[in-house]
Each structure stands twice: as C-alpha cells, then as structure tokens.
C-alpha cells in the first residue's frame, strides 16, 4: 500500500533482466515497440514506463547487458592483451549478430550509455597493457571500437556481400595494426613527384 502523494512502484513481476530478455526475444530491435514489449511481459504500457523511459531506455538496458557479456572478466596483461582483445571482439561478434537490429543500430551515431564507457575503459586498459601511452591507447580504442562496430553493422545488413566475410581475417588485420604507437603528421599531403 502506498501513502498519500506517493506513486506506486514498478510491478513486482518486472525487472531489468525480464525487460531485456523479452526485448531480445522479440526478434528485431528495429521494429520493437513499447506496446509490444509490455504485451510480451504481460504488463500495462504505463507499468513498463515506470522501469524505462521509452524505447531508448530499453535499448540502453540491452546495451549494458550485452557489454557486460562481452567484456572479459579477467584483466588484460602485457602477455595476453592482444588475445584478450580478440576474445572481446569475438564475444561482440557473437552477441551483437545474435540480436537482430543491434549491430546496425550501434553502427550509426547514437548516444553512449554506461556500457559504452565500460567497454572503452576495458579496451584502453588492454592497449595500455600492450605498451601504449595513454593518448595512443585512447586513439587505438577509437579505431578498434569504430571499425569493429562498423564491420558488424555492415555484416548484419549484408552490405559486404552475400556470403559472410571471415571475421577471423578481419580481426587479425585490425589487431596487427594496433595499438597506435606514434602519431603521424596529420593534415599534410605527400608531395607530388617533381615538386
């Protein structure tokens, strides 16, 4: 029972985990609506809004859950940092592509959630373990994160062709070039022959 002026709390049968599970089971995040999600959960539309602030809030919960699943629980070390990043990338591959619409969504500009910063901090720590200075580790994170998510988004949309491209070859090429060690001279164009 609630007192005067107090808003009732969320229904007991709802939880962050239940919302994420129902949203992931919906089949496609791009077409998921709050009304469909509420029906799937067996609650009213308004009850769902007590837990999340609309569709974006649901996507935020999904992002946090997926990032928690893909970031390895052990810390990267100087001996394993590249393999550690490989495990993270393969987990992202498996989780993101198993969630229809997710890789495509995050490959487009979007606001970042707690999950983004969790992943960024973990990847920066891996590049630091690999010997990169703080600035290079941050730049390497940007390259790693952007290229990984863009590749997965394109793969999900089949923009890369009918047959899936080999993720192992992509990942090997990406990790061989990282971390960034020295900043090149940006903004300068190579001289033309004869200048």
UniProtKB/TrEMBL annotation:
UniProt KW keywords: DNA-binding, Transcription, Transcription regulation
Name of the protein in question: TetR family transcriptional regulator
Cited InterPro entries: Cro/C1-type_HTH, Homeodomain-like_sf, HTH-type_TetR-like_transc_reg, Tet_transcr_reg_TetR-rel_C_sf
CDD domains (alphabetical): HTH_XRE
Species for this entry: Streptomyces mooreae
UniProt lineage: Bacteria, Bacillati, Actinomycetota, Actinomycetes, Kitasatosporales
